[in-house]
Design a protein that fits this description.
By secondary structure, this protein is α/β, with parallel strands linked by helices. It contains 7 helices and 11 strands. Helix content is about 40%, strand content about 25%.
């Protein structure tokens, strides 16, 4: 079995592949203060759901945008699984030609998504990842990663509003049917939901216009992707496991040289 780990600013997503089948995936809160033993205990408990043991894990690949977590995670893998994990970074083959001005600045998660997106959906392609930040990535018809846009995620944007506006209370982020809210709660929900939908459509449309390319596929992933794209004009595909699949694909490209 292959353990794939995607470390984000808010959550760590852990997946276990048996061959090409994703047996299960789990979300753990990202915490830079957790020790390797604490991560080991949490993941061991989650593995019990599917009767998975550490001894059944043959290899591990990790993608991370939180460097402070990596020491504990790497130690967890070496101590409990007794493997040296493959880490997404310099020297790892991805097959993606990165045209960013400074390729080292591209988040590991964005590259992993690009690998899976190109493999599964072809090019040209826009990938939207709804995480702590919402990222928009453009891969052109030549398969080149050109770059994209980064915006605050819907949850942190909402939290900032609730914290700074004393008379506005926290609300559940839901899909609303009307943009004219009749009370503070529905007004907040309408503004957050339709405001984000409008932002997504506008950025996608401008990316396509700027690229000059046709038949651009638009794929969304991440926790709130299903909610937001329900109302968008330009996003038709939601792939919640895109990052995990990308990690598996990169592992396959690199395992022979490991």
């Amino acid at each position: 079995m292959l353990l794939v780990v995607d470390v984000g600013n808010t959550n760590i997503v852990v997946g276990v592949y048996e061959g090409n089948i994703l047996k299960n995936s789990f979300r753990i809160g990202t915490d830079i203060n957790k020790t390797s033993d604490e991560y080991g205990a949490i993941i061991a408990q989650l593995f019990l759901i599917d009767s998975i043991s550490f001894s059944s894990i043959e290899d591990v690949i990790i993608s991370s945008v939180v460097p402070e977590v990596m020491h504990s995670l790497e130690n967890f893998v070496m101590k409990y699984i007794q493997k040296t994990p493959m880490i997404i970074g310099p020297g790892i083959k991805t097959g993606i030609n990165i045209k960013y001005e400074n390729p080292s600045q591209v988040g590991a998660d964005r590259i992993v998504n690009a690998v899976a997106g190109v493999e599964k959906y072809g090019v040209p392609l826009i990938l939207i990842d709804f995480g702590t930040a919402t990222t928009f990535c453009y891969i052109n018809a030549k398969g080149e990663y050109l770059g994209g846009a980064i915006t605050p995620g819907i949850k942190i944007s909402s939290e900032a509003l609730f914290q700074r506006a004393s008379k506005l209370h926290k609300v559940e982020i839901i899909e609303t049917t009307e943009v004219i809210g009749r009370n503070t709660t529905t007004a907040l929900q309408a503004g957050i939901f339709f405001g984000y939908v409008g932002m997504v459509d506008n950025i996608v449309e401008k990316m396509i216009e700027e690229s000059g390319e046709e038949n651009v596929k638009v794929v969304a992933t991440g926790g709130l992707s299903s909610l937001i794209i329900s109302e968008t004009k330009n996003v038709s595909i939601v792939d919640k496991n895109l990052t995990l699949e990308g990690l598996k694909m990169i592992y396959e490209k690199n395992k022979q040289s490991k």
